[in-house]
């Protein structure tokens, strides 16, 4: 058996175990792998060392394991997102959660319900996909002359809150074209 086949087999087993750890232990209220504390990362790496000999002092190996954790978490979040998009309504998706959600702790369920409650209190449903608010404002300004200085002045507190001062200057430029 060649050395390359052995390393790919070990790689496959390592990725599989990391995926199982991510699905069972990783907190759902964290968006990105980079945002969690290093102490939590070390706990997850310590958990993988029960089945694999990983030298955490080797920086190349630590970066490799870190990249694997990051990739598996992104894949896990994408799978959950795809699962919920299969349902016609949000209520139906919440009634039938995916199997991975049943293993979550009570704290994570409480955080999820709090987020749902806070989302229902928002005045504006901001659902534009990958387009940021600045893109939408610019597009509306280009397509119509609806945006005047008075409207921008009314929207200024919101624009300031989101640090979109550049939008105002761009809208002024459009008015004077």
TrEMBL record:
Protein name stated in the entry: Uncharacterized protein
């Amino acid at each position: 058996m060649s050395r390359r086949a052995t390393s790919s087999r070990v790689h496959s087993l390592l990725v599989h175990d990391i995926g199982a750890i991510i699905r069972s232990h990783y907190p759902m209220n964290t968006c990105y792998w980079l945002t969690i504390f290093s102490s939590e990362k070390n706990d997850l790496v310590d958990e993988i060392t029960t089945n694999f000999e990983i030298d955490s002092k080797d920086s190349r190996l630590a970066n490799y394991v870190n990249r694997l954790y990051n990739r598996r978490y992104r894949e896990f979040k994408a799978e959950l997102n795809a699962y919920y998009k299969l349902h016609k309504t949000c209520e139906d998706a919440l009634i039938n959660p995916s199997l991975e959600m049943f293993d979550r702790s009570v704290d994570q369920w409480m955080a999820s319900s709090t987020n749902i409650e806070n989302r229902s209190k928002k005045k504006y449903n901001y659902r534009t996909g990958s387009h940021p608010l600045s893109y939408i404002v610019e597009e509306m300004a280009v397509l119509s002359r609806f945006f005047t200085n008075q409207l921008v002045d009314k929207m200024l507190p919101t624009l300031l809150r989101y640090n979109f001062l550049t939008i105002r200057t761009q809208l002024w430029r459009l008015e004077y074209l």
